[in-house]
Design a protein that fits this description.
There is one protein chain. By secondary structure, this protein is of the alpha/beta class. The protein has a single domain, classed as TIM Barrel (Alpha-Beta Barrel). Helices cover 34% and strands 16% of the residues. It is built from eleven helices and 14 strands. It has an eight-stranded parallel β-barrel with strand order 3-4-7-8-9-10-13-14, surrounded by eight helices. The protein has a four-stranded antiparallel beta sheet with strand order 5-6-12-11, with no helix packed on it. 48% of the residues are buried.
């Protein structure tokens, strides 16, 4: 695929050929998946995460996935999913031994260089001491960027100590400082959305030395099946979908206020197509990780999303970098809202059906 200069984005000293990143997932465990993402045009691919915990690897063997429609009914994975499909799942980390994982990193990094792209080493630390050793080994193996994922949604349900979910700003800052001191390559920190102050966690990661921050990880949920009257999957599960986009956009905008427009933010959780990529850029993201859309609809989503972005920019005479934060910087408070007064009058008929806002 030909690179488009107007799509270039700078993230903490790294120039990406476009803002679209394939986020870590089961489809990126093996070489074929990483290569497919790169061939489709992704500027970066985040390898399936690893750590030293055997429990986290075993957890993948017990993984299960449900694709649900807007009425919470299971969908066929072999059919093109609707835009509003939800992914509900439990998952684990890469099943590869660490040495094999490093070998995959080396192999796919060579492919990425051929495509003017990056393969990003993703680490979800269990024990920090071993995690630091793993991070150093990743750099020695040729990792050009490390994603430190400390917002894994499954942590509460996984075996104790298998994976990390940090909600405390002090802990986020401390962990970031330790890993920043241990590695010489850019450090991207991925944070949870399961916090009432995600912007505060972003600020803590920046203070700890992160070069960029990705928000936000998926939420945990529970879906009863009305037919069997049992839990779908039999357990709690991580829950993501297009519904999350407004939540992620809000935290992007709040984080932009907290850390300023020059600190690189990236978005994940909610992007399903090129227009969603644009929405995340307007909310303040410099890069957009797409995971569920690619897992459920295939790597063609990457190419299609990039074409939508190209067409949008060409029509408006803009570059991708021009979009970053444009909508976030125009946010007003409720008291500053320019909407007409008393629009609630006549909004609903007596039978509860919407009549639309009143113009009186």
């Amino acid at each position: 695929m030909t690179d488009t200069p107007g799509l270039n984005i700078d993230i903490g000293g790294i120039r990406l050929k476009n803002p679209l990143i394939c986020g870590s997932g089961e489809h990126l465990i093996e070489t074929t998946g990483v290569e497919a993402a790169l061939k489709a045009g992704a500027a970066a691919v985040v390898m399936k995460s690893t750590n030293e915990s055997e429990a986290a690897k075993v957890q993948l063997a017990n993984a299960e996935y449900a694709l649900l429609d807007s009425d919470w009914r299971p969908l066929d994975w072999n059919e093109s999913p609707p835009r509003d499909a939800h992914l509900f799942c439990r998952s684990g980390l890469s099943p590869l031994a660490f040495d094999d994982w490093l070998a995959l990193l080396k192999e796919t990094d060579g492919v990425a260089r051929h495509h003017n792209a990056l393969v990003i080493a993703s680490l979800i630390p269990a024990d920090q001491v071993t995690g630091l050793d793993y991070a150093r080994a990743m750099v020695a193996a040729g990792a050009r960027v490390i994603e430190l994922n400390i917002g894994a949604p499954h942590a509460a349900e996984a075996a104790a100590g298998a994976i990390t979910l940090e909600r405390d700003a002090g802990r986020v800052r401390e962990m970031t400082e330790r890993f920043r001191a241990a590695v010489t390559v850019p450090l991207w920190v991925k944070l949870t959305g399961q916090s009432d102050d995600v912007a505060g966690l972003v600020a803590a990661a920046r203070e700890g030395g992160a070069d960029a921050v990705t928000i936000m990880g998926r939420f945990m949920g529970f879906v009863p099946d009305v037919e069997t009257q049992a839990p779908i999957l039999g357990t709690f599960g991580a829950f993501g979908g297009a519904w999350a986009l407004p939540l992620t956009c809000r935290w992007l905008a709040l984080a932009r206020r907290a850390v300023g427009p020059d600190f690189p933010l990236m978005a994940t959780n909610g992007a399903r197509d090129g227009l969603d990529v644009i929405r995340f850029l307007l909310a303040g993201a410099r890069g957009v990780q797409m995971t569920t859309a690619v897992m459920t609809a295939g790597f063609g989503v990457v190419d299609q999303s990039l074409q939508t972005l190209r067409d949008y920019l060409a029509t408006r005479g803009e570059n991708a970098a021009d979009l970053i934060g444009k909508a976030a910087d125009r946010l007003a408070s409720y008291s500053e809202s320019p909407a007409e007064q008393d629009q609630w009058r006549g909004l609903f008929a007596e039978d509860g059906l919407s009549k639309g806002p009143s113009n009186t």
